[in-house]
Amino acid sequence: MPKITPATIVKLLIISFFVGWGLSVLDLTPMELLRGMFDRFDAVLNWVSRSMGDIVSYVLIGAMIVVPIWAILYLIEWSRQRGR
């Protein structure tokens, strides 16, 4: 594990100062940044949820056609094997 030296702390302070100054110039606060991140995360989750809902509905609609056809073919094959 790397050691935390005074030089590391000074570097972090300098970088933090410039990042804070840049955010101030852009008129952003830490709360606005966090709120934006959580809003973006929420939007992604909603998109995934809607997409999965569409996928599930497509599967169910397709299954209404595919499963009965498969069941009929399965029963025909089963009756052929049973008759041997």
Would you write up a description of this structure?
- The protein is mainly alpha-helical and 84 residues long.
- It has one domain (6-83).
- Helix content is 88%, strand content 0%.
- The chain contains 2 helices and no strands.
- The radius of gyration is 30 Å and the shape is elongated.
- The termini are far apart.
Q: Which tags fit this structure?
A:
mainly alpha, single chain, 0% strand, 84 residues
Q: Residue-averaged pLDDT, rounded?
A: 88
Strand portion, in percent?
A: under 5%
Q: Tally the beta strands.
A: 0
Largest sheet: none
Q: Which structural category fits the helices and strands? A: mainly alpha
Low-confidence stretches: none
The helix-strand sequence is HH
Level of helix content?
A: over 70%
Our count of domains comes out at 1
Report Rg.
30 Å
Write down the overall geometry.
Answer: elongated
The number of distinct helices, counting runs of at least 4 residues, comes to 2
Q: Distance N terminus to C terminus?
A: 72 Å
Topology of this structure?
Elements: H1 6-25, H2 30-83
Brief write-up:
This protein is mainly alpha-helical. The protein is built from 2 helices and no strands.
